[in-house]
Amino acid sequence: MYLTRLELSHFRSHRRTVLDLDARPVAIWGANGAGKTNLIEAVSLLSPGRGLRRAPAGDLVRRQEAIGWRVGAAIRSGPEVHEIDTRAEPDHGRSVRLNDKTVPQATLARVVPMIWLVPTMDRLWIEGADGRRRFLDRMALSFRPSHAEASLTYEKAMRERNRLLKDQVRDPAWYGALEAQMVEAGAAIATCRAEAVARIQQAQDGAQTAFPVSDLAVVAPEGMPELSPTALEDSRPRDMAAGRTLVGPHRADLLAVYRDKGVAAAMCSTGEQKALLISLVLANARALKAGLGAPPILLLDEVSAHLDAARRAALYDEVVALGAQAWMTGTGSELFADLGARARQIEVVDASGESRIRA
């Protein structure tokens, strides 16, 4: 599975960029601000959601023209080639077309399995649980595209319940249907998350890798009951006082322990935390390849940060061995010297505020 063509129109700093590609990894290098991350952010929008920066559609437009943006791609998946077109006009949300048919964003998860690692994740283990839940849910989504629908159903029902709580609505008749939806969708979310953790763990345990293995667990806050109609009903007084729902999978956390050292990821060094993240991304890719017969597309922004030369070379070897089209960025070509001709090498330069490709 890989992109054979990528087209950007008025996307961030790229006024017009077209790349024809093969299955090799893509090494993108250039000065800070040249538009490297913008390029892989465009690729991330070939999956559901707001992309690797989680930016609103209106923030993605090239400001100089402000006429809307477009990302188009051709993706080979086995013997098939899919055409994807996603765009947003001024003051409109993002639309998606797959093979000339308008489809919901969630459909993309079934067509383009994709995993990414960006510098903001470097603090994943030491900051709030929100980021770890998003990381866990991206893994779960990669295995089960239905995870997106369950998450959307749960979030919508919870927002409506939270509105009732804030309005101090006490009549239980208003809550029943919403809480039933939350319980059903919440059970599906928990199942998908548990499956993802189990498959990642299995992929780590059986791998020959230069990166550390972590033991994972999905946990709830201490004292929080398992999600059920009774738990939600019992929690209404506390929830009303807080103005939000305090029970459910939206409060879960992902914990990791560096296995060989028996140390929680939050207590590891910066370099070890980065290596643990890379290990999980690679394990996710291996597990998907085992299940789908092909690895996902990988987006690894500034992946060489906090990696020494030996670990960097080991990463490239593992990516190539996976057969994944990994899009990797860095500030200089020397960072990708170990890849050589095994990767497509692309330089991005800034030309008076416009990103251009020097391949």
Structure description:
- With 359 residues, the protein is an alpha/beta fold.
- The protein has a domain at 124-269: Up-down Bundle (Glutathione S-transferase Yfyf (Class Pi), Chain A, domain 2).
- It has helices at residues 36-44, 108-111, 129-143, 146-166, 176-205, 229-242, 270-292, 309-322; strands at residues 2-11, 14-20, 26-29, 69-77, 80-88, 95-98, 101-102, 114-117, 214-219, 253-258, 263-264, 297-300, 326-330, 344-351, 354-358.
- The strands form three sheets. It has a six-stranded antiparallel beta sheet with strand order 2-1-4-5-6-7, with helices on one face. A six-stranded mixed beta sheet has the order 8-12-13-3-14-15, sandwiched between helices. Strands 9-10-11 form a three-stranded antiparallel beta sheet.
- Strand 14 and strand 15 (354-358) form a beta hairpin.
- Helix 3 (129-143) packs across helix 5.
- The chain starts with a strand and ends with a strand.
